[in-house]
């Protein structure tokens, strides 16, 4: 006599789980799934809410008042302009100056009426404060207090993503503006968290939104066309400023006697490469920001052609810069892996190339070019993420 096997119970398949365990029923807790946390694995997180956009922008709907309405009982922004300018990048821990006061003021003003931006700012404030409070023998916080502060930052991060995804479900002029401003803060949050892969996703998809919705005038076969959605935040300029600032990451572990907030020691190879190569790339970055400003104000086809020529010169300059970098590396570091600082220079190079390629021109093969450059940028962000897994943002890489 044969016995029938008990019917297997169906299990709901999860298609939206985290990248680590979505195939084995992710519980989808955010920002990190509980399954990964409980099993001691590193949760690779979720795809950016700045999802890819098709070549044809979605119709702009009416602003959702409930999505942008905010309780004004808070009374003021979560941060001052000076603090946010400093919190935008972890580079400022090592006394690197940023020039993002204008961007900070835009974000803070918008946070008074937009929940996603306010939650993102609260997350950044908590996570950055938690990072800076961990000074050896100088903190009055207990380990439990620091844990609560960190968890609060993650909770606010999750709320920001949820609110932002809701806004982007039905794009409107207001939701596009808030999405780009929120993207600035989320890029900074991912830096504090050390999740450079997610940072790369936010950068790529934020730039896609800016380009697909034609925030600046552009050229077609019919000539110069006006911006479709003028007045959107200049996310590209913000990102360029962020990465053009000096990078003091190091792969040399500091002496144990150093303070936890002591800037990392520069390696010999960093000193050989960084000064000249960074100076040249910074010149291109400055010129790119200038071109973007003039494209915004463009009035005639003649001006457009002049700027198109200048754009071409900058793209040629980027190609020459990359060739010079690789030649110099072959001469000074044959067979050695590229330094973290040079990884970040390459990220800036790719950002500049993506921004310039998407400015003014609408060539038939443009989407393919941008897709390839974006893939290289994401691959490089993933590489940095892997290399800096054990990096203590306050000290340098901790060698296991």
From TrEMBL:
Gene3D superfamilies assigned to the protein according to its UniProt record, in alphabetical order: Zn(2)-C6 fungal-type DNA-binding domain (4.10.240.10)
All residue ranges annotated as the Zn(2)-C6 fungal-type domain in the record: 12-54
UniProt entry keywords in alphabetical sequence: DNA-binding, Metal-binding, Nucleus, Transcription, Transcription regulation, Zinc
GO molecular function terms attached to this record: DNA binding; DNA-binding transcription factor activity, RNA polymerase II-specific; zinc ion binding
Region (Disordered): 54-82
Superkingdom, taxonomy of origin: Eukaryota
Protein name (database record): Zn(2)-C6 fungal-type domain-containing protein
